[in-house]
Design a protein that fits this description.
The chain contains 15 helices and 20 strands. It has 463 residues and is of the alpha/beta class.
Protein backbone atom coordinates (compact mmCIF):
# COMPACT_ATOMS: atom_id res chain seq x y z
CA UNK A 1 0.00 0.00 0.00
CA UNK A 2 1.35 3.43 -0.91
CA UNK A 3 1.11 6.16 1.66
CA UNK A 4 -0.62 9.37 0.81
CA UNK A 5 1.93 12.05 -0.13
CA UNK A 6 2.32 14.89 2.33
CA UNK A 7 0.74 18.18 1.38
CA UNK A 8 3.30 20.63 0.02
CA UNK A 9 4.52 23.29 2.41
CA UNK A 10 2.43 26.43 2.35
CA UNK A 11 2.99 30.02 3.41
CA UNK A 12 0.57 31.59 5.86
CA UNK A 13 0.57 35.31 6.57
CA UNK A 14 -0.94 36.56 9.83
CA UNK A 15 -1.69 40.28 10.05
CA UNK A 16 -1.28 41.51 13.63
CA UNK A 17 0.93 40.28 16.48
CA UNK A 18 -1.59 40.52 19.30
CA UNK A 19 -2.80 37.51 21.24
CA UNK A 20 -5.14 36.45 18.41
CA UNK A 21 -2.49 36.70 15.72
CA UNK A 22 0.21 34.95 17.73
CA UNK A 23 -2.23 32.21 18.74
CA UNK A 24 -3.16 31.71 15.09
CA UNK A 25 0.53 31.37 14.21
CA UNK A 26 1.09 28.91 17.05
CA UNK A 27 -1.96 26.80 16.17
CA UNK A 28 -1.05 26.68 12.48
CA UNK A 29 2.52 25.55 13.12
CA UNK A 30 1.32 22.97 15.62
CA UNK A 31 -0.97 21.40 13.04
CA UNK A 32 1.26 21.89 9.98
CA UNK A 33 4.84 22.26 11.23
CA UNK A 34 6.37 22.24 7.74
CA UNK A 35 4.52 25.39 6.67
CA UNK A 36 6.06 28.84 6.71
CA UNK A 37 4.21 31.25 9.00
CA UNK A 38 4.91 34.97 8.74
CA UNK A 39 3.40 37.46 11.20
CA UNK A 40 3.45 41.11 10.14
CA UNK A 41 2.94 43.81 12.76
CA UNK A 42 2.76 47.55 12.13
CA UNK A 43 3.99 48.42 15.63
CA UNK A 44 7.33 47.94 17.27
CA UNK A 45 6.39 45.20 19.75
CA UNK A 46 4.47 41.94 19.95
CA UNK A 47 1.48 41.29 22.18
CA UNK A 48 -1.06 43.93 21.23
CA UNK A 49 -2.98 44.75 24.39
CA UNK A 50 -1.06 42.12 26.37
CA UNK A 51 1.69 44.16 27.93
CA UNK A 52 3.70 44.25 31.12
CA UNK A 53 6.16 46.62 32.75
CA UNK A 54 8.71 46.20 35.49
CA UNK A 55 7.16 47.92 38.50
CA UNK A 56 9.38 48.25 41.57
CA UNK A 57 11.30 45.13 40.63
CA UNK A 58 8.53 42.75 39.51
CA UNK A 59 6.68 42.10 36.26
CA UNK A 60 3.30 43.82 36.32
CA UNK A 61 0.52 43.67 33.73
CA UNK A 62 -0.72 46.91 32.20
CA UNK A 63 -3.05 45.08 29.83
CA UNK A 64 -5.27 42.14 30.89
CA UNK A 65 -4.16 41.05 34.36
CA UNK A 66 -6.14 37.81 34.58
CA UNK A 67 -7.96 35.24 32.47
CA UNK A 68 -11.10 33.25 33.12
CA UNK A 69 -10.19 29.88 34.59
CA UNK A 70 -13.63 28.30 34.07
CA UNK A 71 -13.48 28.50 30.29
CA UNK A 72 -10.78 26.31 28.77
CA UNK A 73 -8.96 28.30 26.12
CA UNK A 74 -6.49 30.48 28.03
CA UNK A 75 -5.61 27.91 30.69
CA UNK A 76 -5.13 25.26 27.97
CA UNK A 77 -2.84 27.57 26.02
CA UNK A 78 -0.77 28.32 29.12
CA UNK A 79 -0.38 24.58 29.58
CA UNK A 80 0.54 24.06 25.92
CA UNK A 81 3.29 26.66 26.37
CA UNK A 82 4.71 24.78 29.35
CA UNK A 83 3.72 27.46 31.84
CA UNK A 84 1.03 25.64 33.82
CA UNK A 85 3.23 25.67 36.92
CA UNK A 86 3.29 29.48 36.71
CA UNK A 87 -0.48 29.89 37.09
CA UNK A 88 -1.51 31.83 40.20
CA UNK A 89 -4.95 31.97 41.82
CA UNK A 90 -6.17 35.18 43.46
CA UNK A 91 -6.16 35.58 47.22
CA UNK A 92 -9.43 37.54 47.04
CA UNK A 93 -11.87 38.67 44.36
CA UNK A 94 -14.18 40.67 46.63
CA UNK A 95 -14.57 44.09 45.02
CA UNK A 96 -16.56 47.13 46.13
CA UNK A 97 -18.46 49.86 44.32
CA UNK A 98 -17.69 53.48 45.08
CA UNK A 99 -20.85 55.61 45.17
CA UNK A 100 -21.44 59.25 46.12
CA UNK A 101 -22.42 58.19 49.65
CA UNK A 102 -19.48 55.84 50.20
CA UNK A 103 -18.18 52.38 49.41
CA UNK A 104 -20.41 49.28 49.16
CA UNK A 105 -19.56 45.59 48.59
CA UNK A 106 -20.54 44.36 45.14
CA UNK A 107 -23.85 42.50 45.69
CA UNK A 108 -23.51 38.73 45.24
CA UNK A 109 -25.51 36.78 42.69
CA UNK A 110 -25.76 39.41 39.97
CA UNK A 111 -25.28 38.62 36.28
CA UNK A 112 -22.79 41.21 35.02
CA UNK A 113 -24.34 43.62 37.49
CA UNK A 114 -27.95 42.72 36.68
CA UNK A 115 -29.66 41.68 39.93
CA UNK A 116 -31.60 38.45 40.26
CA UNK A 117 -33.80 39.96 42.99
CA UNK A 118 -34.11 43.06 45.14
CA UNK A 119 -32.49 41.27 48.08
CA UNK A 120 -29.07 42.58 49.07
CA UNK A 121 -29.37 45.85 47.13
CA UNK A 122 -30.03 48.12 50.12
CA UNK A 123 -27.32 50.74 50.32
CA UNK A 124 -26.08 50.14 46.79
CA UNK A 125 -29.43 51.46 45.57
CA UNK A 126 -31.65 53.99 47.26
CA UNK A 127 -34.94 52.77 48.77
CA UNK A 128 -36.71 53.98 45.64
CA UNK A 129 -34.20 52.12 43.49
CA UNK A 130 -34.73 48.89 45.43
CA UNK A 131 -38.50 49.30 45.15
CA UNK A 132 -38.15 49.77 41.39
CA UNK A 133 -36.29 46.48 41.09
CA UNK A 134 -38.82 44.67 43.26
CA UNK A 135 -41.70 45.96 41.12
CA UNK A 136 -40.25 44.69 37.82
CA UNK A 137 -42.19 41.43 37.97
CA UNK A 138 -45.41 43.46 37.95
CA UNK A 139 -44.61 45.12 34.62
CA UNK A 140 -46.15 43.76 31.41
CA UNK A 141 -44.39 40.65 30.12
CA UNK A 142 -41.16 41.43 28.34
CA UNK A 143 -41.12 41.00 24.56
CA UNK A 144 -37.90 41.75 22.68
CA UNK A 145 -37.60 42.12 18.94
CA UNK A 146 -34.01 42.07 17.75
CA UNK A 147 -30.99 43.49 19.51
CA UNK A 148 -31.35 46.34 22.01
CA UNK A 149 -28.97 48.38 24.13
CA UNK A 150 -28.17 47.16 27.61
CA UNK A 151 -29.01 50.53 29.13
CA UNK A 152 -32.20 51.01 27.15
CA UNK A 153 -33.68 47.73 28.31
CA UNK A 154 -32.52 47.84 31.92
CA UNK A 155 -33.49 51.47 32.51
CA UNK A 156 -37.01 50.71 31.29
CA UNK A 157 -37.38 47.56 33.36
CA UNK A 158 -35.22 48.06 36.48
CA UNK A 159 -34.58 51.80 36.66
CA UNK A 160 -31.64 54.13 36.18
CA UNK A 161 -29.88 53.21 39.42
CA UNK A 162 -29.28 49.60 38.39
CA UNK A 163 -27.61 50.81 35.21
CA UNK A 164 -25.64 53.70 36.69
CA UNK A 165 -24.52 52.03 39.92
CA UNK A 166 -24.20 48.33 39.07
CA UNK A 167 -24.03 47.60 35.37
CA UNK A 168 -22.05 50.61 34.18
CA UNK A 169 -18.97 50.06 36.36
CA UNK A 170 -18.78 46.41 35.32
CA UNK A 171 -19.28 46.94 31.58
CA UNK A 172 -17.15 50.07 31.75
CA UNK A 173 -14.33 48.00 33.16
CA UNK A 174 -14.55 45.36 30.43
CA UNK A 175 -15.35 47.46 27.36
CA UNK A 176 -14.59 51.07 28.41
CA UNK A 177 -18.08 51.60 27.01
CA UNK A 178 -21.50 52.91 27.98
CA UNK A 179 -24.45 50.61 28.68
CA UNK A 180 -26.75 52.90 26.69
CA UNK A 181 -24.68 52.20 23.57
CA UNK A 182 -23.64 48.57 24.05
CA UNK A 183 -25.44 45.61 22.49
CA UNK A 184 -27.29 43.34 24.90
CA UNK A 185 -26.81 40.31 22.64
CA UNK A 186 -23.07 40.89 22.26
CA UNK A 187 -22.09 41.92 25.80
CA UNK A 188 -24.60 39.89 27.83
CA UNK A 189 -25.28 36.84 25.64
CA UNK A 190 -26.28 34.56 28.53
CA UNK A 191 -28.90 37.04 29.74
CA UNK A 192 -30.08 37.74 26.19
CA UNK A 193 -30.60 34.02 25.57
CA UNK A 194 -32.82 33.72 28.64
CA UNK A 195 -34.77 36.89 27.84
CA UNK A 196 -36.11 35.13 24.75
CA UNK A 197 -37.99 32.78 27.08
CA UNK A 198 -38.53 34.80 30.28
CA UNK A 199 -41.17 37.42 30.93
CA UNK A 200 -39.04 39.65 33.13
CA UNK A 201 -35.40 40.68 33.43
CA UNK A 202 -35.19 39.33 36.98
CA UNK A 203 -36.44 35.92 35.87
CA UNK A 204 -34.01 35.90 32.96
CA UNK A 205 -31.13 36.82 35.27
CA UNK A 206 -32.00 33.94 37.60
CA UNK A 207 -32.15 31.54 34.66
CA UNK A 208 -28.82 32.81 33.27
CA UNK A 209 -27.17 32.46 36.66
CA UNK A 210 -28.50 28.92 37.13
CA UNK A 211 -27.59 27.87 33.58
CA UNK A 212 -24.04 29.06 34.15
CA UNK A 213 -23.82 27.08 37.37
CA UNK A 214 -25.09 23.95 35.61
CA UNK A 215 -22.63 24.32 32.74
CA UNK A 216 -19.77 24.54 35.24
CA UNK A 217 -21.07 21.56 37.17
CA UNK A 218 -19.46 21.32 40.57
CA UNK A 219 -16.29 23.04 39.35
CA UNK A 220 -14.06 24.01 42.20
CA UNK A 221 -11.18 26.39 42.02
CA UNK A 222 -10.84 30.05 41.18
CA UNK A 223 -12.89 31.95 38.62
CA UNK A 224 -9.78 33.85 37.46
CA UNK A 225 -6.07 33.06 37.29
CA UNK A 226 -2.97 34.88 36.15
CA UNK A 227 0.62 34.01 35.26
CA UNK A 228 3.35 34.71 37.81
CA UNK A 229 5.40 36.64 35.23
CA UNK A 230 2.29 38.41 33.96
CA UNK A 231 -0.24 37.65 31.25
CA UNK A 232 2.09 39.85 29.22
CA UNK A 233 4.60 36.96 29.22
CA UNK A 234 2.41 34.92 26.85
CA UNK A 235 3.26 36.70 23.56
CA UNK A 236 6.99 35.93 23.75
CA UNK A 237 6.22 32.35 24.76
CA UNK A 238 3.91 31.97 21.76
CA UNK A 239 6.55 33.25 19.35
CA UNK A 240 9.19 30.94 20.80
CA UNK A 241 6.88 27.92 20.65
CA UNK A 242 5.57 28.59 17.15
CA UNK A 243 8.85 29.40 15.46
CA UNK A 244 6.93 31.88 13.35
CA UNK A 245 8.78 34.67 11.55
CA UNK A 246 7.60 37.92 13.19
CA UNK A 247 8.24 41.13 11.26
CA UNK A 248 7.75 44.26 13.37
CA UNK A 249 7.26 47.75 11.91
CA UNK A 250 5.83 46.08 8.82
CA UNK A 251 2.35 47.48 8.19
CA UNK A 252 -0.03 45.64 5.87
CA UNK A 253 -1.85 47.82 3.35
CA UNK A 254 -3.99 45.62 1.10
CA UNK A 255 -4.92 42.04 0.29
CA UNK A 256 -5.75 40.90 -3.22
CA UNK A 257 -6.30 37.66 -5.10
CA UNK A 258 -3.57 36.43 -7.42
CA UNK A 259 -4.64 33.31 -9.25
CA UNK A 260 -5.17 30.63 -6.65
CA UNK A 261 -3.26 32.49 -3.93
CA UNK A 262 -3.47 35.74 -2.01
CA UNK A 263 -1.07 38.65 -2.00
CA UNK A 264 -0.50 40.93 0.99
CA UNK A 265 1.02 44.33 0.30
CA UNK A 266 3.24 45.27 3.24
CA UNK A 267 6.05 47.62 4.17
CA UNK A 268 6.60 51.34 3.92
CA UNK A 269 6.48 53.78 1.03
CA UNK A 270 10.27 53.60 0.90
CA UNK A 271 10.35 49.79 1.06
CA UNK A 272 7.15 48.23 -0.32
CA UNK A 273 6.85 44.47 -0.59
CA UNK A 274 4.30 41.89 -1.65
CA UNK A 275 3.98 38.63 0.29
CA UNK A 276 2.40 35.74 -1.57
CA UNK A 277 0.37 33.46 0.67
CA UNK A 278 -1.72 30.32 0.54
CA UNK A 279 -3.72 31.58 3.54
CA UNK A 280 -4.10 34.89 5.36
CA UNK A 281 -5.47 35.49 8.86
CA UNK A 282 -6.35 39.12 9.58
CA UNK A 283 -6.37 39.98 13.29
CA UNK A 284 -6.03 43.76 12.98
CA UNK A 285 -8.54 46.17 14.58
CA UNK A 286 -11.81 46.66 12.71
CA UNK A 287 -10.93 49.93 10.98
CA UNK A 288 -7.64 48.64 9.61
CA UNK A 289 -9.24 45.33 8.65
CA UNK A 290 -11.83 47.24 6.63
CA UNK A 291 -9.08 48.90 4.61
CA UNK A 292 -7.20 45.63 4.13
CA UNK A 293 -10.26 43.73 2.95
CA UNK A 294 -11.72 46.39 0.67
CA UNK A 295 -10.28 44.87 -2.49
CA UNK A 296 -10.90 41.22 -1.72
CA UNK A 297 -14.02 41.08 0.52
CA UNK A 298 -15.80 44.42 -0.06
CA UNK A 299 -19.00 43.36 1.71
CA UNK A 300 -17.02 43.20 4.97
CA UNK A 301 -16.05 46.86 4.85
CA UNK A 302 -19.23 48.56 5.98
CA UNK A 303 -19.94 46.29 8.98
CA UNK A 304 -16.31 46.62 10.09
CA UNK A 305 -16.60 50.39 9.93
CA UNK A 306 -19.53 50.08 12.33
CA UNK A 307 -17.22 48.90 15.12
CA UNK A 308 -15.68 51.98 16.80
CA UNK A 309 -12.98 51.86 19.47
CA UNK A 310 -12.52 53.47 22.88
CA UNK A 311 -9.20 54.82 24.11
CA UNK A 312 -8.03 54.43 27.68
CA UNK A 313 -4.96 54.51 29.88
CA UNK A 314 -3.66 52.39 32.76
CA UNK A 315 -1.47 53.74 35.53
CA UNK A 316 0.54 51.18 37.52
CA UNK A 317 1.66 52.36 40.96
CA UNK A 318 3.79 51.00 43.78
CA UNK A 319 3.29 52.72 47.15
CA UNK A 320 5.17 52.24 50.41
CA UNK A 321 3.82 49.42 52.57
CA UNK A 322 0.60 50.38 54.36
CA UNK A 323 -2.70 48.73 55.24
CA UNK A 324 -5.58 49.02 52.73
CA UNK A 325 -9.08 47.67 53.26
CA UNK A 326 -10.43 47.48 49.72
CA UNK A 327 -10.45 43.77 48.90
CA UNK A 328 -9.37 43.10 45.32
CA UNK A 329 -10.29 46.59 44.22
CA UNK A 330 -12.89 49.25 43.54
CA UNK A 331 -15.38 49.87 40.74
CA UNK A 332 -15.92 53.58 40.20
CA UNK A 333 -18.97 54.60 38.10
CA UNK A 334 -19.29 58.05 36.48
CA UNK A 335 -21.95 59.10 39.02
CA UNK A 336 -19.08 59.68 41.47
CA UNK A 337 -17.49 62.33 39.26
CA UNK A 338 -14.11 60.61 39.75
CA UNK A 339 -11.30 60.53 37.22
CA UNK A 340 -10.55 56.81 37.47
CA UNK A 341 -13.10 54.15 36.59
CA UNK A 342 -11.56 51.23 38.43
CA UNK A 343 -8.78 50.35 40.87
CA UNK A 344 -7.18 46.93 41.30
CA UNK A 345 -5.30 46.39 44.56
CA UNK A 346 -2.90 43.86 43.08
CA UNK A 347 -0.88 43.22 46.24
CA UNK A 348 -4.09 42.17 48.01
CA UNK A 349 -5.47 40.24 45.06
CA UNK A 350 -2.40 38.31 43.92
CA UNK A 351 -0.08 36.61 46.42
CA UNK A 352 2.97 36.80 44.14
CA UNK A 353 2.76 40.60 44.05
CA UNK A 354 2.86 41.11 47.80
CA UNK A 355 6.04 39.40 48.95
CA UNK A 356 8.12 42.54 49.34
CA UNK A 357 5.46 44.46 51.28
CA UNK A 358 4.92 47.21 48.70
CA UNK A 359 1.37 48.22 47.85
CA UNK A 360 0.92 47.66 44.10
CA UNK A 361 -2.15 49.16 42.49
CA UNK A 362 -3.39 49.82 38.97
CA UNK A 363 -6.12 52.19 37.83
CA UNK A 364 -7.79 52.81 34.48
CA UNK A 365 -9.02 56.02 32.89
CA UNK A 366 -11.14 56.69 29.82
CA UNK A 367 -14.54 55.71 28.48
CA UNK A 368 -16.01 55.68 25.00
CA UNK A 369 -17.19 59.19 24.17
CA UNK A 370 -15.59 60.67 27.30
CA UNK A 371 -11.87 60.71 26.67
CA UNK A 372 -11.06 64.37 27.34
CA UNK A 373 -8.94 63.49 30.36
CA UNK A 374 -6.66 61.44 28.12
CA UNK A 375 -5.57 64.65 26.39
CA UNK A 376 -3.46 65.57 29.44
CA UNK A 377 0.27 65.06 29.09
CA UNK A 378 1.78 61.97 30.70
CA UNK A 379 3.07 63.63 33.86
CA UNK A 380 -0.17 65.51 34.51
CA UNK A 381 -2.40 62.48 33.91
CA UNK A 382 -0.21 60.22 36.05
CA UNK A 383 -0.20 62.70 38.93
CA UNK A 384 -3.98 63.12 38.76
CA UNK A 385 -4.58 59.36 38.78
CA UNK A 386 -2.16 58.84 41.69
CA UNK A 387 -3.98 61.51 43.70
CA UNK A 388 -7.40 60.03 42.91
CA UNK A 389 -6.28 56.52 43.86
CA UNK A 390 -4.65 57.69 47.09
CA UNK A 391 -7.90 59.41 48.04
CA UNK A 392 -10.08 56.44 47.11
CA UNK A 393 -7.93 54.02 49.12
CA UNK A 394 -7.40 56.42 52.02
CA UNK A 395 -3.63 56.16 51.82
CA UNK A 396 -1.51 57.86 54.44
CA UNK A 397 1.70 57.54 52.43
CA UNK A 398 0.49 58.99 49.16
CA UNK A 399 3.73 59.38 47.18
CA UNK A 400 4.40 56.28 45.07
CA UNK A 401 7.76 54.58 44.93
CA UNK A 402 7.17 54.25 41.20
CA UNK A 403 4.35 54.98 38.75
CA UNK A 404 4.08 53.90 35.10
CA UNK A 405 1.54 55.16 32.56
CA UNK A 406 0.52 53.07 29.54
CA UNK A 407 -1.87 54.51 26.97
CA UNK A 408 -4.15 52.32 24.87
CA UNK A 409 -5.23 54.56 21.99
CA UNK A 410 -8.17 52.88 20.24
CA UNK A 411 -7.74 50.00 22.63
CA UNK A 412 -11.18 48.46 23.07
CA UNK A 413 -13.78 47.71 20.37
CA UNK A 414 -17.31 48.85 21.12
CA UNK A 415 -20.00 46.23 20.62
CA UNK A 416 -22.80 48.62 19.70
CA UNK A 417 -26.40 47.58 19.09
CA UNK A 418 -26.48 45.26 16.08
CA UNK A 419 -22.95 43.96 16.66
CA UNK A 420 -23.77 40.26 16.21
CA UNK A 421 -25.28 41.01 12.79
CA UNK A 422 -22.16 42.94 11.80
CA UNK A 423 -19.97 40.00 12.79
CA UNK A 424 -22.07 37.58 10.72
CA UNK A 425 -21.84 39.91 7.70
CA UNK A 426 -18.05 40.18 8.03
CA UNK A 427 -17.56 36.45 8.37
CA UNK A 428 -19.90 35.65 5.45
CA UNK A 429 -17.96 38.06 3.22
CA UNK A 430 -14.59 36.69 4.29
CA UNK A 431 -15.66 33.04 4.02
CA UNK A 432 -16.39 33.59 0.33
CA UNK A 433 -12.67 34.20 -0.26
CA UNK A 434 -10.67 30.94 -0.27
CA UNK A 435 -7.74 31.05 2.12
CA UNK A 436 -8.92 34.11 4.08
CA UNK A 437 -10.07 34.36 7.71
CA UNK A 438 -10.43 36.98 10.46
CA UNK A 439 -10.02 36.88 14.22
CA UNK A 440 -9.48 39.22 17.14
CA UNK A 441 -11.23 41.28 19.78
CA UNK A 442 -13.49 43.01 17.25
CA UNK A 443 -15.76 40.00 16.92
CA UNK A 444 -16.80 37.64 19.72
CA UNK A 445 -15.27 38.99 22.93
CA UNK A 446 -12.51 41.26 24.17
CA UNK A 447 -11.09 38.87 26.77
CA UNK A 448 -8.01 36.73 26.26
CA UNK A 449 -9.92 33.39 26.08
CA UNK A 450 -12.30 34.80 23.47
CA UNK A 451 -9.40 36.00 21.31
CA UNK A 452 -7.73 32.59 21.58
CA UNK A 453 -10.99 30.87 20.67
CA UNK A 454 -11.44 33.11 17.64
CA UNK A 455 -7.90 32.44 16.43
CA UNK A 456 -8.38 28.70 16.71
CA UNK A 457 -11.66 28.99 14.84
CA UNK A 458 -9.94 30.89 12.02
CA UNK A 459 -7.17 28.31 11.70
CA UNK A 460 -9.63 25.42 11.73
CA UNK A 461 -11.69 27.05 8.97
CA UNK A 462 -8.62 27.42 6.77
CA UNK A 463 -7.05 24.03 7.41
Amino acid sequence: MSSRPAAPAARVVVVGAGIAGLTAAFEWRRRRPADEVVVVEAGGRIGGKLDRVELAGVWYDTGPEAVLARVPEAVELVGDLGLADRLVAPRTTQASIVLPDGRHPLPPGTVQGVPTSADGLDGVLTPDGVARVRAEAELPPLRLEGDVSVGGLLRARLGDEVVDRLVEPLLGGVYAGRPDDLSLAATMPALAAQLARAESVLAAAVAARDAGARSRGDADGPVFVTVADGIGALPAALVAASGAQVRLRTPAHAIRRAGGRLEVAVGTVAAPEVLEADAVVVTAPAGKSARLLAGVAPDAVEPLRGIPYASMAVVAMAFPAQPVDAGSGLLVPPVTGRLVKGVTVSSSKWPHLSGDGLLRVRASVGRYGDEVQLQRDDDDLTAAVVADVADLLGLERREPVEARLVRWGGGLPQYLVGHPQRVVAVRDAVAAVPGLAVAGAAYDGVGVPACIRGARRAVEALI
